[in-house]
Structure formats: structure tokens, C-alpha cells
Specification:
Elements: H1 11-57, E1 60-67, E2 70-77, E3 85-91, E4 97-103, H2 112-115, E5 121-123, E6 133-139, E7 148-157, E8 160-163, E9 168-171
Antiparallel strand pairs: 1-2, 2-6, 3-4, 3-7, 5-6, 7-8, 7-9
């Protein structure tokens, strides 16, 4: 019974410690919440900007033809907004993807995720300026068996690149 005379911490000190822990915990939660809010707003703003540019500022008309093992796609930009390049996805007659071709600055690391799995070549590897027309050649090792090519413009907003989600289906003549 030696411990009967021992006292714990005083209620005042206990209250101060609880309030201190609560303040530290609240500060951590507020800091985390602020960072989360800022990153969410920033990402939403970028997504909205990409969607706005893709839906209102990109107006490209395409025609396609086959010459031997090459598919030639003529892209005519009808808008004052240029595009950085294109992602062309060849479609088999049953609708499955045959292959993907990328027409853009392939040294740019921001487009690395677009290039994964892409085969073949597209020349020239550059974009399309405002009110310009260019021919892109999709080269393959054999005569193409695909009947359609989906074309998606790659735009740049700020320092980031984005592939537009609104694709244009080009029928092979």
C-alpha cells in the first residue's frame, strides 16, 4: 500500500496536454486538407481547360487513302488553334484496335504514356498549325488490313500536353 500517497498528473496539466494534442492534430488535418483542396482545384482547372480547348478550339477535317503499305491521312485545320500532334489508332473491320501511331514530339516525356505500345511510324513528327493542312503517312510492314483510323488531336495548355478525348473516325478510301 505504498502507492496510496502517489498522485497522478493534475487535472490542469491533463487538460492543457489534451488541448495541445487537439491543436496539433487540427493543424495537421488543416494542412493536409488545404493541400488536397488546392491540388483538386488545380487538376479540375486543367481538365476543364483541356476539355474547353478540345471541344471549342480544335476543328480538323480528315481524309484518308491507302497506297501500298502506307495509309495517308490528310488533316486540315479549320480553326485558329494549332495542335501539337496526333494520336492515330487504326481499327480492324471488327472494331478492334490494329495499331497506334503517334505524330508528335516523341522526345517529350509528357507524351510517354501515349507512346506505350505504339508501333509503326508517322512522318512528319510534328503538329498542325492554325488553318494549315498536312499529310501524315502511317507506315506498316504489310498492306494495311484496317478500314478506319481514329484520329485524336494532342493539345498543349500551359506546359502540359493532353490527348483530346473526342476522336474523329476516318474511313479508309
Amino acid at each position: 500500500m505504498r502507492f496510496k500517497n502517489k498522485k497522478g498528473i493534475s487535472p490542469l496539466i491533463a487538460t492543457v496536454l489534451i488541448i495541445g494534442f487537439t491543436i496539433v492534430l487540427a493543424a495537421l488535418v488543416i494542412t493536409w486538407g488545404t493541400k488536397l483542396f488546392k491540388s483538386t482545384v488545380e487538376q479540375t482547372g486543367k481538365t476543364a481547360e483541356y476539355s474547353r480547348i478540345c471541344s471549342t478550339s480544335v476543328n480538323i477535317e480528315y481524309t484518308a487513302s491507302v497506297s501500298g503499305s502506307d495509309t495517308k491521312i490528310v488533316a486540315s485545320n479549320k480553326a485558329s488553334q494549332g495542335v501539337e500532334g496526333f494520336l492515330f489508332v487504326a481499327k480492324n473491320s471488327d472494331g478492334t484496335n490494329a495499331t497506334a501511331f503517334l505524330a508528335a514530339d516523341q522526345t517529350n516525356p509528357q507524351l510517354a504514356s501515349v507512346r506505350v505500345g505504339a508501333t509503326g511510324t508517322v512522318n512528319p513528327l510534328d503538329g498542325l498549325g492554325p488553318f494549315a493542312t498536312k499529310t501524315y503517312t502511317l507506315s506498316s510492314v504489310a498492306t494495311p488490313t484496317y478500314s478506319q483510323v481514329e484520329a485524336r488531336a494532342i493539345i498543349k495548355a500551359g506546359s502540359d500536353y493532353q490527348v483530346c478525348t473526342n476522336e474523329e473516325t476516318v474511313n479508309i478510301a
